[in-house]
Specification:
heterodimer, A: mainly beta, globular, B: mainly beta, seven-stranded mixed sheet
Chain lengths: 112, 112
């Protein structure tokens, strides 16, 4: 099936630092979604992207839909302790229809 | 965004027994899905719950093991049958609203 390669697997940063994570695929994707999951919770949608080249912000978060439609990145600026969690990329490919494909997740730890 | 609740939030079950998980949405939705998230892993789609017809299962998942009901556009159940320790996971209900996909809080299942 479709696979999304998400990196890095984990990040340990100091409060105030900026963070960047990305997802790549060998196939073309029609949508990219970024989720955050905290312990004991379900994933929460952060940003949704629908067009190649689209750049969207949500507070300190910025995500872009790659121009090739095979990648996306998520940036977090000026990180704070509550940014801790697992961040997942997900997307709809041409062949997956309504089914979302998920990346493996990036575990973010922010040290105060 | 859709508000999704799941019951139970967690359970500890003995092997060989079955557990039924309920998912309730605060609005009518066409697309509803069930996912599994094994410890430390990403999300894997189990099936699409179709209203008024049999669920559509992904490769590796079968109806006898994971029977699903979808009696209306706001409710669905997933049963994990004849459980074994390998079924210990978080089970998540998910819905599509507009062009975005949302997740419930999950049911954390431990099988002893």
């Amino acid at each position: 099936g479709q696979q999304l390669n998400q990196s890095p697997q984990s990040m340990f940063i100091q409060e105030g630092e900026d963070v960047s994570m990305n997802c790549t695929s060998s196939s073309i994707f029609n949508t990219w979604l970024w989720y955050k999951q905290e312990p004991g919770e379900g994933p929460v949608l952060l940003i949704a992207l629908y067009k190649a080249g689209e750049l969207t912000s949500n507070g300190r978060l910025t995500a872009q839909f790659g121009i090739t439609r095979k990648d996306s990145f998520l940036n977090i600026s000026a990180s704070i302790p509550s940014d801790v969690g697992i961040y997942f990329c997900a997307g709809h490919s041409k062949t997956s229809g309504s089914r979302l494909t998920f990346g493996e997740g990036t575990q973010l730890t922010v040290n105060p | 965004s859709a508000v999704i609740s799941q019951k139970p939030s967690r359970d500890i079950c003995q092997r060989g027994t079955s557990l039924t998980i309920q998912c309730q949405v605060d609005s009518q939705v066409t697309m509803m899905f069930w996912y599994r998230q094994q410890p430390g892993q990403s999300l894997t789609l189990i099936a699409t719950a179709n209203q008024g017809s049999e669920a559509t299962y992904e490769s590796g998942f079968v109806i006898d093991k994971f029977p699903i009901s979808r009696p209306n556009l706001t409710f669905s159940t997933l049963t994990v049958s004849n459980m074994s320790p390998e079924d210990s996971s978080i089970y998540l209900c998910s819905v599509v609203q507009g062009s975005e996909q949302y997740f419930g809080p999950g049911t954390r299942l431990t099988v002893t």
